[in-house]
Amino acid sequence: MTAEELQSGHIFLLDKPLDWTSFQAVNKMKYKLKREFNLPKKFKIGHAGTLDPRATGLLIVCCGKFTKKIPEIQDAPKEYWTEIKIGVQTESYDTEKPEILHQDFSHITEEHIKTALEKFLGEIEQKPPVFSAIKIDGQRAYNLARAGEEVEMKSRKTTIFYIEDVKIDLPLISFTVGCSKGTYIRSLAHDIGQELGVGAYLTQLRRTKIGDYKIEDATSDFLENDFRFNNS
């Protein structure tokens, strides 16, 4: 790989570690590439779809002329491996905030769970989490929420294509979900809990696919020299 090839365009498939922001991952990679290949200051690089810090998995990074592919990749369907915990909630809908509102879930059966999951297939209305990067009056929602301000999130349409490989070990439920651009799996976890009547939040999230790009082809070794990339 040469500096000329990087500027002509490459797509890197990264396996983002837990507690890294997508920005940190891209920034670290940009620094390493610029240093090793003596790239110009204005070298273009960016990711094609944010992953929350508490999520792991596929983060697509485009560089050079392939940054033009970012909107197309962002629009592609996504797939996630998901784990939720029922009978309790958090303000952030994930593990960022402590557990609250514990409820008895002893009456919840496997049939209750499968019926609830089926109700989320197809086009649905979904409210993004208050702790999200959506801008409200020019400010990120999570900044307003962390400052203690009341934030009203507007519902938006999204599509759940499939929910598969459901495994139940209460209070934990795991499954694979395929969804459209803009779907918040944290909100899906919360809404499933509301449908069950006992609450729920997201305990683990791993992005496994974006369009035709798969986590199996990604590398978590991007802090070293082993960059696995795709010329498409």
Provide the fold topology.
Elements: H1 3-8, E1 10-16, H2 22-37, E2 45-47, E3 56-63, H3 70-74, E4 78-86, H4 110-118, E5 122-126, E6 135-136, E7 139-140, H5 141-146, E8 156-169, E9 172-179, H6 185-196, E10 200-210, E11 213-214, E12 229-230
Parallel strand pairs: 3-10
Antiparallel strand pairs: 1-3, 1-12, 2-3, 4-9, 4-10, 5-8, 6-7, 8-9, 10-11
What does this structure look like?
The chain is an alpha+beta fold and 232 residues long. Helices cover 23% and strands 31% of the residues. It has six helices and twelve strands. The strands form two sheets. Strands 1, 2, 3, 4, 5, 8, 9, 10, 11 and 12 form a ten-stranded mixed sheet that branches. It has a two-stranded antiparallel ribbon with strand order 6-7. Strand 6 (135-136) and strand 7 (139-140) form a beta hairpin. It is elongated, with a radius of gyration of 19 Å. It starts with a helix and ends with a strand. The model is unreliable at 226-232 (pLDDT under 50).
